Fold:
Amino acid sequence: MVGLITPLYDAAPGVGVAVAQRMDPVKAAVLVVRVFLGGLLLAAGGLKVGHPAELAANIAVFRLLPAAIVGPLALALPYVELLLGGYLVAGLFTRVAACVAAAQFAAYAAAIASAVVRHIPAACGCFGPHDTSVADWPHVGYDALLAAASAFVAYGAPGALAVDRKLRSA
Amino acid sequence: MTRRALVVATTFLLALIALGAILYYFIGPRHGAVQNASVSPIVGKAQLGAPAPQFEVASTAGLFDLSKADKPVFLEVFATWCPHCQHEVAIVNRLYQKYRTSVEFLGVSGSDTAMDGTSTASELDVLNWVRRFKVQYPVAYDPLLNVANLYLQGGFPTVAIIGKDKKIDYLDSGEIAYQDLVGAIEKVLR
Structure:
């Protein structure tokens, strides 16, 4: 019998609609936000892969970190974003992944805000080297919203259709 | 696969990413470019709307003296190793073809590191940059980085457009779109 907390992938074919109708709205919301954030991180990471020098230059402009950290960070960040994005989409280690994503977006918001306050003309570079949008207050707002969305996912983790549920029931 | 195995795999993957990044930073195929790009660039005293700081340099088209320029000046401070600058050449070439009769164009090197990201910048390196990226506008090698120290705005390339009144009408850094620069030049020509 398919219960309220049974994940969709456990349902037999044809039972999905009935299950969806009974899905907890919080779990459904967490699923939607989780997949959105994961997709965003997958896109952001994917577009940065192969452009470490460009990303390093974008980070260095903020003048917040020493060169010895900026370089390795620029090299590692795209793959970390891909990993985080993949985990969020799959719902694997959801709470930890969402907490890390929230911290990451909050750090981006703080870095951009500091650049705006110091009148540094920095490019966002959020989606790779061809993203030349200027780091400004709206970007601070977007990143703060994404941090809040990640915190929501961490709070309601893992949400529906998450590998975490499968692991828990295994 | 158990949760424990996934935790171990994730930890291993993160360690691999961190180790790979550190190794690439020191010995990777383009580590020099990454190391140079990681250094925070200079922010000069040039300011939008303020009088343009005076400079003179020897360019591929002869001596350039800002105080003697009788046309608006399009100044680009670049680094030969900088990928953004390499991409921007095609845009500045297009602008040069369109406005060369009404605007003076000048690219000035602003880094003490050469195109390979490891050796020291030189006049030869700047000439190699001109040949390799088919730069059409006049370019100058500035060994003391005087122009960069005056105009650079925290990122390569920095573009300054100086009006006939010798005030800075446009100042920005990074890869700038062709249409944005056309708009800035048209404004200064009005």
